Amino acid sequence: MAKYVFQSPGKYLQGQGVLETLGEETGKLAGKPLVISDEMVWSITEERITESFKNADIDFKYEEFKGEASEAEIDRLTEVAKNNDADVVIGVGGGKTLDTSKAIADDLGSPVIIVPTTASTDAPSSSLSVIYSDEGAFTGYRFYDKNPNLIVIDSGVVVNAPAKLFASGMSDAMATLVEARAAQKSNGDNMVGGQPTLASMAIAEKCEETIFKHGHAAYKAASNGIVTPQVDAVIEANTLLSGLGFENGGLAAAHAIHNGFTSLSGDIHHLSHGEKVAYGTLVQLVLENSPDETLERYIGFYKKIGMPTTLKEMHLEDTSFEDLVKVGKLATDPEDTFANLSDRITPEEIANAILAVSEISEASK
């Protein structure tokens, strides 16, 4: 068994207008695509995608994604693909749509093309899917033998999505180096069955460097629908660098705490993946006994881009300590990644760290 393992997608295309190449690029892989997307995203992209396939002389089948990356939805869409003899799956949209597309393609044994319409997560490049119940609770991961065959991300589409999603992608990406360092320090496994390579750590470092360097300017430009070099740099950091970094560097506490938050009910479920990961990253930094200046740097950045750093902003101000312990219990499930930080931290210590983050953030105002 190899000690160090690194995986990556087959091809990555990014830039303003690249959606127009989707038909041509699809034709290099297969000829009978199933395209899945939710209703809102399809209303934005249908015309350009249809024209792209028309220009490539390719017929495609479209099926609406119902919104949850659950086993039931994966099974339903897999049957649609089989009934239409689809030989490639194309996911267009956000993280759950893309994770579902990867699962369908794996069930079919077909190529998969990923078309993110936001830069909100690092899901596009990875060889795994995060699976939820039909009600939205985290149930586990599905791992695949390969990464997506092709990723096509149009910067012009991304900047027309809500700016909050762009910020959420930065927050998700900000966890990459924090978690990869923890995995490396603990000699933990990455997400592809080995230990972090030098390349994965370098990518994770570049990811964080890019976001701290260009994130605020990129956020302001994207908020106004403008594509700039800073925007393209952050799209790459959110999507490619973070994806390669987390998968090959490893996850630790930040994402496990995000998963722990799914044990709660209430308005927290209206928050994006990146918003919850941002708070989980701060909790991990507290549990690592990070210096004050490190915590202040992360908190200050999150505040600039409107990410939650207090219990009130997480809609948890009235949550009992016992419920926060439940978050800690789910986060430390042996099947999750918390042990890449430590296998000695208790759910009660996690609950205390969740409380501490809010107090530190309030004091930093």
TrEMBL record:
The keyword Metal-binding applies. It catalyses: glycerol + NAD(+) = dihydroxyacetone + NADH + H(+). Keywords: Metal-binding, NAD, Oxidoreductase, Zinc. It is an enzyme of class 1 (oxidoreductase). NAD(+) binds at residues 38, 95-99, 117-120, 126, 128, 132. Glycerol binds at residues 122, 172, 255, 273. One of its GO terms (molecular function) is metal ion binding. Pathway: Polyol metabolism; glycerol fermentation; glycerone phosphate from glycerol (oxidative route): step 1/2. Its cofactor is Zn(2+). InterPro entries: ADH_Fe/GldA (IPR001670), ADH_Fe_CS (IPR018211), Glycerol_DH (IPR016205). Residues 9-154 form the Alcohol dehydrogenase iron-type/glycerol dehydrogenase GldA domain. It comes from the Bacteria. SUPFAM superfamilies: Dehydroquinate synthase-like (SSF56796). Its EC number is 1.1.1.6. One of its GO terms (cellular component) is cytosol. Binds 1 zinc ion per subunit. Pfam families: Fe-ADH. Belongs to the iron-containing alcohol dehydrogenase family. This is Glycerol dehydrogenase. It comes from Salinicoccus sediminis.
